[in-house]
Amino acid sequence: xxxxxxxxxxxxxxxxxxxxxxxxxxxxxxxxxxxxxxxxxxxxxxxxxxxxxxxxxxxxxxxxxxxxxxxxxxxxxxxxxxxxxxxxxxxxxxxxxxxxxxxxxxxxxxxxxxxxxxxxxxxxxxxxxxxxxxxxxxxxxxxxxxxxxxxxxxxxxxxxxxxxxxxxxxxxxxxxxxxxxxxxxxxxxxxxxxxxxxxxxxxxxxxxxxxxxxx
Length: 215
Hints:
The chain has 13 helices and no strands. It is mostly helical.
């Protein structure tokens, strides 16, 4: 968990004036990206929303793409705090994997930018080309590593090969993209987002038999 928190975002003291200003810029950008889209949002608008000059924005972020990247990183950092239960000792491996999938499916409520990307927002997906590739690759690798460990533990006593673990991790990450659709009632019917995610996680991990009933 500590590794994940360190990976996502600045390690600077959040009470530091410079860090507070950086976070203020990130918050302003997030509001605008969600409200009117990435392409329609200018650096000038972000500066105006944050109450600073355009030049100040560039002191913290070299490009608008870098600003979007840090907006997404901050969403993930805030959300990671809610994932601590899955890293606690004593949790059964299968339950840990369920917690991961449930969290991934309900992500839309906590992370609007990430949810839009997972829902297939082509504007945001294309904007990823403006983001730092090294940082994106690092984040993807960490997600695969963590999920791979969960899958390996849940599969015991059956021993999966690294290739099998990797394939399963990619499938679960792909399934998590379905989470963006759960915000729509026509998709989840009478079920709440949380209830739908819980049942789906149980079905994936336990199967469709009696042992798969969601709590």
